[in-house]
Sequence to fold (260 residues):
Amino acid sequence: MMPSLFIAHGSPTLAIEDNLYTQYLTALGKTLPKPKAIVLFSAHWVSPVQTVSNVDEFKMIYDFYGFPDEMYNIVYPAKGYKDLTIDIVDLFKDHGISFRVDETRGLDHGAWVVLRLLYPNADVPVISMSVNPNLSPEEQYKIGASLFKLREKDVLIIGSGGTVHNLRALNWSKQSGDADGWAVEFDDWIGDHINKWDLDSLFKYDAIAPNAELAVPPYGNEHFVPIFYAMGAADNEKKAKLIHSSYQYGNLSHSVWQFG
Fold:
């Protein structure tokens, strides 16, 4: 059975950088069994209703500003998988989850930066999924849990975001090195409760985790919540492993969690 993953997509410039994290993601794509398809929940697609893509081939969305020109010339020609969209729709109906289908939206950088590093040949079909940060963590987890049977069909489920993602707190001059203590303390707390599969505590992270408001500011919680979708997809096994952790700009977390 395929695992589900939570992958931090970091800064858009990961698409053109060669560092320990990009090298890790490239190696991870070669290590994992090649999936039949990928279902990816992106922090950069926020929707009040769970939305599922249904396209033949994705257009590019360059949802960032002021970056090097080469960033805007990147093309990742991922194809969709309409039969899988039908399967997802059926699962949502079975579990009473409201949804809509989108036939026009392209891939945002929260999706294509990660996918391009994992599968640079764009030879794995993709279903893009929205997130809703206004749902409770329990509801986000439930959406992920409704899809766990897809993993039995060699479908890789990914939540793309970041456990610590506060652009106002970044130290842009600090490319790598020691991370800010408050960010590490938050990530350590999250990691401890993920390893225990302590959903009661995780669902209240914003109230009880140390430095939660700094690590996951109210205006940026869409980057944190993909972890609940990815965890939910492994609800049948409830196993977790942190397979990579590093930081950029002092506190931008580059964490990869494997579930299942």
